[in-house]
Specification:
This protein is mainly β and 362 residues long. Helices cover 9% and strands 35% of the residues. Strands 2, 4, 5, 6, 8, 11 and 13 form a seven-stranded mixed sheet that branches. Strands 1, 3, 7, 9, 10 and 12 form a six-stranded mixed sheet that branches. Strands 16-15-18-19 form a four-stranded antiparallel sheet, with no helix packed on it. A hairpin with a 5-residue loop joins β15 (297-301) and β16 (307-311).
């Protein structure tokens, strides 16, 4: 290598090291001037576990107790809590005091909930000393719960992901507790909502509404709810259930934090979907002289268009089973040797029907 080439190479190495040192110093200096506080968090990496829980396998439960503390190990990370996520609801409302029952959208494009960014402040103890707003896990201290607190930006909510295939009577049980004994005082409202699928608006469920979950300065009041989801939520592979609060209208115009309300003892259960009862049709096909017609074709069509076909025995008798009860059924007969002027009958199948007979014209 020539002398000039060696000199140029050495210059490039020194310049790279200088830039690295300066960059590192700049980052350290910036963090020293602007430290990250509990109440002002920079954007964080988040993860979640939005697997749709199969209701056929049992009940979906979410509770915070002394025995299962620290389910959430780091901020904004729901990966250890299957089928549940929390969101900040940033700027969902234009002002404070909006009824959460009327807030049916999300803060995301197409209302589709992402796995990031989710929201939760992990491993908190005293709600009265923490006013960051949003969602928090209180897993030590007097009150254990997943907390929701609105503020000028946050309208926080929890989402539960359910697969209700083959299930009905999906029931959401939960308790809402005042966990804030501090000076904050607000009307703390909670709405229960659901939607089928992953886009579009949520639907409010009036029976799940809590008009005010907190007392102001005195913690401990608990409201217990048990709500059956509408039939539209039955038998669906993707159902989302949401518990949401909004920034409350308090004494200083919504600019101070709301009270923390705690969500706990959530149990979502279901029942097997009712199987439609089955009934049968039977009768005899005869000729004009009253003798049984052997090998006549008898077909029953149900309300969905499905059909069942049998042939008559040597004495003209037939039997068609597994017809859905409560549906209209069309029964038709035909034969290569005979014609039937009245070869079609329409029946309402409430129960087994016998003596559904057909007589040939010749």
């Amino acid at each position: 290598m020539k002398q000039n080439d060696r000199t140029a190479a050495l210059y490039r190495v020194l310049r790279f090291r200088s830039v690295t040192v300066i960059t590192a110093f700049s980052i350290a200096f910036t963090l020293a001037l602007f430290p990250v506080s509990e109440n002002f968090r920079l954007t964080r990496t988040a993860s979640a576990n939005a697997t749709y829980f199969s209701m056929g396998s049992g009940s979906l439960n979410l509770s915070v107790t002394a025995g299962n503390a620290n389910q959430i190990t780091s901020n904004d990370d729901w990966s250890g809590v299957s089928s549940v996520e929390g969101y900040a609801g940033t700027n969902l409302t234009a002002t404070h005091g909006i009824d959460p029952q009327t807030v049916l959208n999300t803060e995301f494009v197409n209302n589709q909930l992402p796995n990031t960014p989710t929201n939760v402040s992990a491993n908190k103890g005293n709600p009265s000393a923490f006013n960051a707003g949003g969602v928090a896990e209180f897993d030590s201290g007097t009150f254990l719960a997943i907390g929701l607190q609105g503020n000028v930006q946050a309208n926080p909510y929890l989402v539960f992901y359910l697969n209700t295939t083959g299930r009905s009577t999906v029931t959401v049980n939960y308790s809402v507790q005042d966990i804030d004994s501090g000076s904050n005082d607000s009307v703390s409202r909670l709405a229960l909502q659901y939607r089928v699928g992953e886009t579009g608006s949520f639907t409010n469920i009036a029976a799940g509404f809590v008009a005010d979950a907190t007392d102001g300065g005195v913690a401990g009041r608990t409201t217990v709810k048990s709500v059956v989801l509408p039939n539209a939520a039955n038998g669906k592979p993707k159902v989302q259930v949401r518990m949401i609060t909004t920034n409350a209208a308090n004494s200083v115009g919504g600019s101070t934090p709301d009270e923390w309300m705690g969500i706990n003892n959530v149990t979502i259960s279901s029942s097997p979907a009712a199987t439609a009862a089955k009934v049968a049709i039977s009768g005899r096909v005869t000729n004009a002289q009253g003798r049984g017609v052997f090998g006549a074709i008898v077909t029953a069509y149900d309300g969905s268009g499905s059909s069942r076909t049998v042939l008559t025995n040597p004495f003209g008798y037939y039997h068609i089973a597994d017809i859905t009860a409560g549906e209209a059924c069309v029964v038709q007969v035909s034969s290569k040797r005979f014609t039937f002027a009245s070869g079609v009958r329409t029946l309402m199948m409430w129960d087994d029907m016998a003596n559904v007979n057909f007589v040939a014209d010749n």
